Amino acid sequence: VTLEQRFQSKVDDDERIEPKDWMPDAYRQTLIRQISQHAHSEIVGMLPEGNWITRAPSLRRKAVLIAKVQDEGGHGMYLYSAAETLGISRDELLEQLLAGTAKYSSIFNYPTPTWADVGAIGWLVDGAAIMNQIPICRCSYGPYARAMVRICKEESFHQRQGFEIMMTLARGTPEQHRMAQDALNRWWWPSIMMFGPNDATSKHTAQSMRWKIKRFSNDELRQKFIDITVPQAEFLGLKVPDPDLRWDEATQHYIHGPIDWKEFEEVLKGNGPCNRERLETRRRAHDDGRWVREAALAHAEKQRARETQAA
Amino acid sequence: VTLEQRFQSKVDDDERIEPKDWMPDAYRQTLIRQISQHAHSEIVGMLPEGNWITRAPSLRRKAVLIAKVQDEGGHGMYLYSAAETLGISRDELLEQLLAGTAKYSSIFNYPTPTWADVGAIGWLVDGAAIMNQIPICRCSYGPYARAMVRICKEESFHQRQGFEIMMTLARGTPEQHRMAQDALNRWWWPSIMMFGPNDATSKHTAQSMRWKIKRFSNDELRQKFIDITVPQAEFLGLKVPDPDLRWDEATQHYIHGPIDWKEFEEVLKGNGPCNRERLETRRRAHDDGRWVREAALAHAEKQRARETQAA
Amino acid sequence: MSASAATVLSASTDLRFRYAVHLGDTSLILAQRLGEWVGHAPALEEDLALANIALDLLGQARYLLSYAGEIEGKGRTEDDLAFLRDPSDFTNLALVEQPNVDFGHTIVRQFLIDAWQLELFECLQGSSEPRFAELAAKALKETRYHYRFSSGWMVRLGDGTEESHKRVQEGLDSLWKFTSEFFAPGAVDEEAAAAGLGPDPASLRAAWAANVEQVLTEATLKKPADVSYRWFGKRNQHSEHLSHLLAEMQFMQRTYPGVQW
Amino acid sequence: MSASAATVLSASTDLRFRYAVHLGDTSLILAQRLGEWVGHAPALEEDLALANIALDLLGQARYLLSYAGEIEGKGRTEDDLAFLRDPSDFTNLALVEQPNVDFGHTIVRQFLIDAWQLELFECLQGSSEPRFAELAAKALKETRYHYRFSSGWMVRLGDGTEESHKRVQEGLDSLWKFTSEFFAPGAVDEEAAAAGLGPDPASLRAAWAANVEQVLTEATLKKPADVSYRWFGKRNQHSEHLSHLLAEMQFMQRTYPGVQW
């Protein structure tokens, strides 16, 4: 048996691949791409919600929001660590992000003009993320699977918090209800698109399935998300902004209207409402922090020198 | 007759001294010091009120406030020009300001935490400034006197606007009245101190009087200001924060309580509430604008070169 | 603006209201941004000039929002419209809500909008609604002065030092996408054009582009590639910056409702 | 805190209210400032640490403002006190409202206040009011962690590169004057001390100064000269920064009064 065959049979037997195990280079590259993209999404994803930390409408909401954004940073850390086990450093990954060559989830290129967006992100975006991520808890690559277990636990907590914000708004004053509906209008389609292109046009799926990095197709996950989320919207008394949406008795699924893939492509290409702003914000933070990181290195160097001298 | 005698007799005859006329060096230096100090005050004085431009409570007030702060910048320009006729450049003067070696009116080292401060500055600070400045319209040095005529006209307009803001507040809701009273509490004593130390301790007065740069003593002007302003406060229904203040039938003047000269000295020394902030703000504007000024110079240079080449 | 008398008469109150608010919001939000500069500009002359432009724009906004309140007939004043609407009710062009960043970005933003307002006000003078025509005649004179200032600085900064060139080019690259909104259909200005109230937004493009291109050439700047950006303030789609700007601008009126100042 | 039982009993409701608000405001405003950093710190670890400190401080503020509302007995909640008071009603230390400027200023501000809170909470554990004592015990543990973070960075930045040394020294020079308020008499904390509620502010100085001096020495930083600065947040005298901070923080509650979120 070749190394490759042994690797695939381990995967087939649902054994975990660990960092020191042999793995095909394409498997490694696919994982690095996917994990780092996920890590970057957590980091960039701190910004749209972070936008409301200073303006959260109650102290309790402020505390919950800070903790949530902090969790996202923490997720970024786990994921960068998981990626590092594949032989790439966090610095390299960050460089790719700031250079604009690495991807992150397009959803974070949409703005958060109102407080209701914080609720909508928790409810819809975290909801969609969980749908994507739960299967990854059983991913063939050990460090990624383990990071994901921890992340999913926190995400579902965030999702509930988001739903609760939406509920408070939807059942609040007319202005609050309007705010909630407006946020749903703006986040619904981008959330639906988070699952990626239709299966027919998705290029990575087959190989990733074989490697058990991916376990469901984009369209399967999207359908699952819609089936769960539409009744939640009804429960909130909010209207999903899809005139073609209908329940199909035969398949026991919701059938949704056509997705505007042109918008998806545009946002992916960098022409979304905030692509430029998000990267500029990250770059500014990075540039403004350079002197601090340099100081930390210089100080550590001095300390080392002093210790050597003392020894 | 000596040059000095001829000069003094011109001054005594109320003739104007003009830039090309001979003048004693001490006269020139006194004027440069006083005019530039006045110019700097206008420039630094843009900041406390400018602080409310983005938050002015109505569009009309916003427009009036922008125009007022703009006028102050304009006054700074006239005054720098007047100083330049004495053989010093605006750049040199600005350098002195930014280096912290030139003075400006201490009053601008107090903060404007509420909208009422915009009213109080107009009413009290501009009121005190006018009191100081009207006599300078007859100053012996022509360019300074002429600049001051123009400035005084605008200042009295500002003073009325400030009074009107105070009136609206004092006659408004209880919160507004409280805001107005709080502003009066904070600005009263600093305004009183704007006239400078008591005559007994003021060092420049005698010579400046002889040169007709100054026409009234600090205490005379202060008394005039108090006599005019106290009835205005009563008209507004506001309480002047001086428990010892009383009308004196014999002298037909208001008698005020003791002034806290220690506070005056501290603010003058740099320990006022905003001394550091004001200079830092000016320095930052100057530093941030360096590349712009350099670009303008570089472009002008290129243009000149192109014209020379073309000719 | 080739609307027949019939369509002119049918320009509904609602449409005139929305068009006045759209134009008024654009002037207002830009005035607010420029107001942030007062006391902080690179030199005294620029400080005064920026304040002046802010004042002109604020004057336009007050005229338009007062008119809007008047025809709406619900007793709303210019201040009610400026201070008591939510961000999602504003229909200013998204460009004008973008932050000042530095003097270079500020000049680029001003130049792009000045060049657009030149064309807009030129045409708006022929509005079937005399109040718009009157505003346009006054605003056009003001805009010519603004444009002289901003285009002059585009050239000085673009053809100045290496640093100034870099900064202003960055500003241009960053803000260019927002210009697609100037000429895009599907919003109140297109409706207004159909009703003879104002120019067809698309019709302003050619003259604007020619103007801009000429200045960019003189400024030795590179015109960014056009992108299909489709998030438009005039369709109530705003960047995150607007709600921050409004939180500051509206704070007093929100905190003390119904009070005279 | 050597108040007799008699004075303890006489610590009026009003005084306990004002003392709780003073301490709560200080924690709240600092939490708000640190919240501005989230997503923008020099590295991920610092981002998480600053968020953590913000959360601790916010927790302290919520405890104290809730308690204040409770003893006041007018039905005001933590949110009413945080979001519906005017700047002049706040009694936070002026230091904590100062802007972030850069990471260096932020660290200096944090370090100076951490060192003070270490002493404060240590003593406050012995408060005659169990609710203050309880808060202090929890907050002391948190503060030890904050202090480890901020003093560690003081040393790294002070004894790091030439640039970091310069920046942190500038921050120190700029913020030092605000520390005189920590120990100054004539405000609510002095009254609280007289009533046995908390420590005499002046009594915290020696330990604070020793601590600070030691860290500054290790950080190769120069202790600024003491100045007689006498504008104190605890006497309701605030810098211009506070009203800007509050305009942002309070916007939602001011705009939609009486609403649940």
TrEMBL record, chains C, D:
<dbReference type="GO" id="GO:0010124">
    <property type="term" value="P:phenylacetate catabolic process"/>
</dbReference>
<dbReference type="GO" id="GO:0005829">
    <property type="term" value="C:cytosol"/>
</dbReference>
<dbReference type="InterPro" id="IPR052703">
    <property type="entry name" value="Aromatic_CoA_ox/epox"/>
</dbReference>
<dbReference type="InterPro" id="IPR007814">
    <property type="entry name" value="PaaA_PaaC"/>
</dbReference>
<protein>
    <submittedName>
        <fullName>Phenylacetic acid degradation protein</fullName>
    </submittedName>
</protein>
<dbReference type="Pfam" id="PF05138">
    <property type="entry name" value="PaaA_PaaC"/>
</dbReference>
<dbReference type="InterPro" id="IPR012347">
    <property type="entry name" value="Ferritin-like"/>
</dbReference>
<dbReference type="InterPro" id="IPR011882">
    <property type="entry name" value="PaaC"/>
</dbReference>
<dbReference type="InterPro" id="IPR009078">
    <property type="entry name" value="Ferritin-like_SF"/>
</dbReference>
